[in-house]
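Fold it.
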Amino acid sequence: MAETTPRVRYFRSTELPWQRDASGARFWAAGLSHVALTYFRLDPHTRFEAHSHASEQITLVLSGTLVFEVSGAIYEVGPGEVIAIPGHVEHAVFSKDQPVEAVDAWSPPPEHLGDAPSSN
């Protein structure tokens, strides 16, 4: 019986090309079959209009403040803070007067990441 070893991927920052999303937003992504990670930077006053996706999303803000609008509630997420959004929950996101750096964890990887480096 053949033994199978899981394939471990190591990504150097130079191997993760920056991609553009919304005007003023750029990110890189890496993933496995069931989870993905994105690191992104938003310019001040960048906005993602109300949307939803099947993927669960957990966002950790590294610098700046991200404002999430979810079902009429406003969440201002600052450095070191986390917001977890279940799949299929509509939300809008925007940055304020400062740039933002943040990390998103996704499960399963969302379609909009397309051909992000992965272990598939």
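The mean pLDDT is 89.
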